[in-house]
Amino acid sequence: MSETTADTNGDARAFLAGIRVGDVCSGTVAETSRKAIAVVLDGFPDRPLGFVGSLDVSWGPGPVAPPEPGQRVTAEVTAVDPEGCRVRLSLAATQEPRLWAFLKSLRPGAMLTGRIASIERFGVFVELDEGPRHPVFPGVGFVTFPELSWRRFEDATEVVRVGEQVSCQFLRFDTVHGEARLSLRATLPDPFQAFADTAAVGQTLRGRVTKVQPVGAFVQVAEGVEGLLRPQAPTAAEESAIRAGEEVTVVVSAVDRLRRTVTLARGRKR
After folding, report:
1. From-to residues of CATH 2.40.50.140 in the chain
2. What is the pLDDT of residue 113?
3. What CATH code would you report for 3-95?
4. What pLDDT is attached to residue 1?
5. Contact 203, 252 (CB under 8 A)
6. How far apart are CA 168 and CA 188, in angstroms?
7. For the domain 191-266, what is the CATH code?
8. What pTM was estimated for this model as a whole?
9. Which of 61, 86, 102, 127 is the most exposed place for a label (fewest CB within 10 A)?
10. What is the largest CA-CA distance in the chain?
């Protein structure tokens, strides 16, 4: 490293020492690429220290034309890397300051209420009772399918309906889409823990086969709880004959609370 470069890096670190996450910075776009926008920050003209990732440009649903070199921009600092002499910036934060501030104020575990605004093939939007509206999507809240329910379902309409009022737990701020990621199932009793409290190794149960895969058959042994019945010689031929929807007798082989799994063996027919 040359002496000039070392001096420049030292000056950059000194400049970045006064910047904090949440600060709003202005500057001039120096370069635009597919991955990032490089910004020369006001107060440090030597080289670009600010970088806007491709996912931090806008919360719009489709590709957005990035600002051109020479254009002035204002963005919020989302990360500071003094050693790397750079700060990560978000243009989306300054485009929708009220929404950004609202989402930043939320804490994991907080309970939020709202109305089911839309059911899509990739998840469910929730129009929150509090906070500003989303500039693009039907709701600021968003629930992925796994967070809808503890039990297996084929269609989201089996769990929620458009217009239904719901209470959800806040999981995290999705800065890419400007959403509050929510969980509906977190507000409901966990059926696996209830099952694990009462199940015992060697216990015989009756259950319905929900799915058959090469690794074995999945058997619903309680509401919202499925166990894996693995094929085992010399009964492999018998196991392969199991069909989805069939009622079978199984024996609990193991219950793993950490992995949330139940292992089953074939029980004697009654």
Report:
1. 3-95, 98-187, 191-266
2. 98
3. 2.40.50.140
4. 47
5. yes
6. 10
7. 2.40.50.140
8. 0.74
9. 61
10. 84
**Residues with Cβ within 8 Å of residue 197, at least 6 apart in sequence:** none
CATH class, domain 98-187, is mainly beta
Q: How does pLDDT run across 99-118, given as a tens digit for each residue?
A: 999 999 999 999 999 999 99
Placement of tokens 């790397």 in the chain: 84
Amino acid code (one letter) for 84:
G
**Average pLDDT across the chain, whole number:** 90
Whether the CB-CB separation of 253 and 264 falls below 8 Å is answered with yes
Determine contact, residues 154/205, Cβ cutoff 8 Å.
Answer: no
